[in-house]
């Protein structure tokens, strides 16, 4: 099947083909307010005074409970490295379709998988995106740096729950855990109001770290409205995953979000989803489960890896 990028660049596209047409719920509400998700200064979490660190940990707790998302600034991942990643991903999607098809996986658990939509053979309506997913642990510089950021954030999350700072890292065996690298390319869409890049969903795992190019498209469900998220320059967007919700017995929620389209240009996003080893069964932490509100779930059994 032709990729969405190939479809757009074919020169024959005037309208969105019917198989990509989702439409929108006319009753849904999109916030027009200048709402901004919480901002966490990573440097104060890792190198701040005790009082500064206490305040940041409190802010992490509020962000995880009220939004399920937050932006991290002063995180230490170099801009040059982030730009190189965006450019490398763009170069991959610029390859000829035959070359990209060499990386098309057979199922959702393949270590490398290129594709469009989720399952083009059975989906009735297709998504307006092309993607590349790689299971890493970590094998290149960007994945190492984002893993370092995730590990420090997990310490802050642990402390925000009243637990020892290495609690989540040890209980979830994060040091030998999984890291899914997911990039999405959203080509410009002639009718952005009827196509979708990603439908509303939540992410698996503990934390997802997301960077993107200059174009927005992510929307987060907050207080019954879809809130467009426009990250600050040089920030990394963080969201809570399903397994963090289970681990915290629902104190911290994995929030529904989606990716919408635009006419102006191509949006590229790169997400790294961090979780326990694939063999793990995730249950509520005993210290937070009185009583437990969630049953244990096998990590490998979760099929999604859709980070925006």
UniProtKB/TrEMBL annotation:
All residue ranges annotated as the Fe2OG dioxygenase domain in the record: 176-276
Source superkingdom: Eukaryota
InterPro entries named in the record: DIOX_N, IPNS-like_FE2OG_OXY, IPNS-like_sf, Oxoglu/Fe-dep_dioxygenase_dom, Plant_2OG-oxidoreductases
Pfam families associated with the record: 2OG-FeII_Oxy (PF03171), DIOX_N (PF14226)
Alphabetical keyword list: Iron, Metal-binding, Oxidoreductase, Vitamin C
Keyword Cytoplasm (UniProt): no
Gene3D superfamilies xrefs: B-lactam Antibiotic, Isopenicillin N Synthase, Chain
Family indicated by similarity: Belongs to the iron/ascorbate-dependent oxidoreductase family.
Protein name per its UniProtKB record: Fe2OG dioxygenase domain-containing protein
Species name: Hevea brasiliensis
Classification lineage: Eukaryota, Viridiplantae, Streptophyta, Embryophyta, Tracheophyta
